[in-house]
């Protein structure tokens, strides 16, 4: 398993383990862990108000802008899929407080205005998958990235689209995505992505193509491919979160 993904699971385990140790033997509060810090009332009911206060105290300064990463990619491109699933999504999972991710599914595709269609490097299935992901980004909003990660990390990107949507964005009906891909909206979204590719400076020469705060350099790209987590931490101008500084290593690991 990818080292960064192992790190994600390890950090989540430590946080849950710490909370369980300090709150034991209090009974379950009926809320999933992801909701424990949503409000003071829930935190008190779940017996984790102290941990939630500590977490809030280490949140990034809202005045400092996040590191904005835009990934220009193709849905069936092996290199794009590897970067999205092994670097971008795990890093975002740990650092979503200090980074913003934009996804542009188009890559080396060509817009064919005379045919009112598109031509893609990996054929018609990729054109359709690109449009599905564009429609997911439009309809699912904040839940879109997990849906697309689910699709890109599966054995079959297209076959996994519906179950991934149902799992991570159940508020969006699959019929909505199908309607988008068959109608004018899907075509319009793909045209917008084509324009985004055309105005890149410097012009893209390959995919995945990655920009940081609107800029692309070969040095950043090289680092992003293997150590995106470290790069985002270094590029962030505000006070580094504990996960960047290594403070999470100081968590109490004593047994309950």
UniProtKB/TrEMBL annotation:
Residues of the Saposin A-type domain: 22-62
Any one Gene Ontology cellular component term annotated for this protein: lysosome
Subcellular location(s) of the protein: Secreted; Lysosome
Sample GO molecular function, one term: oxidoreductase activity, acting on a sulfur group of donors, disulfide as acceptor
GO biological process, one term: immune system process
Signal peptide: 1-21
Annotated InterPro entries: Interferon-induced_GILT (IPR004911), SAP_A (IPR003119)
E.C. number: 1.8.-.-
Main location: secreted
Similarity-based family: Belongs to the GILT family.
Assembly and oligomerization: Dimer; disulfide-linked.
Protein name (record): Gamma-interferon-inducible lysosomal thiol reductase
